[in-house]
């Protein structure tokens, strides 16, 4: 079941024109949110931030804005069935909302962490400051990582700096502070990332600096975050014939997770 263009549809298929730019070119913008307490108005759900993300990208691309009341209507209907929503907007303002459940192994990943593999530099995200439907490079990076028994991939630039995972923003702990790559490196301004920065800045515990090959070796613990999975520790990063190890049970990872319970 899903919501499309003002209608609730009970089906596993969506009919699109064969010349639809969303189908041909991935010409859509989307956001994925986790609904806390069954309410779009929960501060942790952060509904307005997700809508602002879509609005900003649509405005930047000079696309047609959707009927926001209809977007809200579809979301309200689907949260009775699903805790996670993906809201997609087409260039002509059509909205498409699908729901899904949290990953079955989420608590296991949050507790014990995951392994990552560095992606090839050519697998960079298109228009990284916007969450567009063209996610081929990230999908390929994650698919390739799975062949090496890694659960995630880390995207890098031509200088070898770590940018983000295929699904979230990176965080590293060293010298008593959390570090995260800056937006100027060409990463997605994640909503979960923005929440954490706001919280951590009040404690003067956040540094935005490029993750060079030297900096990443100094981290005691690293993790990635997004609005759905919250904080996922990374215990191993495979790169260029070697592996870097990090502590997935570091006490500050627990403190970082606690911020999502605020």
UniProtKB/TrEMBL annotation:
<comment type="similarity">
    <text>Belongs to the class-IV pyridoxal-phosphate-dependent aminotransferase family.</text>
</comment>
<dbReference type="InterPro" id="IPR043131">
    <property type="entry name" value="BCAT-like_N"/>
</dbReference>
<dbReference type="InterPro" id="IPR043132">
    <property type="entry name" value="BCAT-like_C"/>
</dbReference>
<protein>
    <submittedName>
        <fullName>Aminotransferase class IV</fullName>
    </submittedName>
</protein>
<keyword id="KW-0808">Transferase</keyword>
<dbReference type="InterPro" id="IPR036038">
    <property type="entry name" value="Aminotransferase-like"/>
</dbReference>
<dbReference type="InterPro" id="IPR050571">
    <property type="entry name" value="Class-IV_PLP-Dep_Aminotrnsfr"/>
</dbReference>
<dbReference type="GO" id="GO:0008483">
    <property type="term" value="F:transaminase activity"/>
</dbReference>
<dbReference type="InterPro" id="IPR001544">
    <property type="entry name" value="Aminotrans_IV"/>
</dbReference>
<dbReference type="Pfam" id="PF01063">
    <property type="entry name" value="Aminotran_4"/>
</dbReference>
<keyword id="KW-0032">Aminotransferase</keyword>
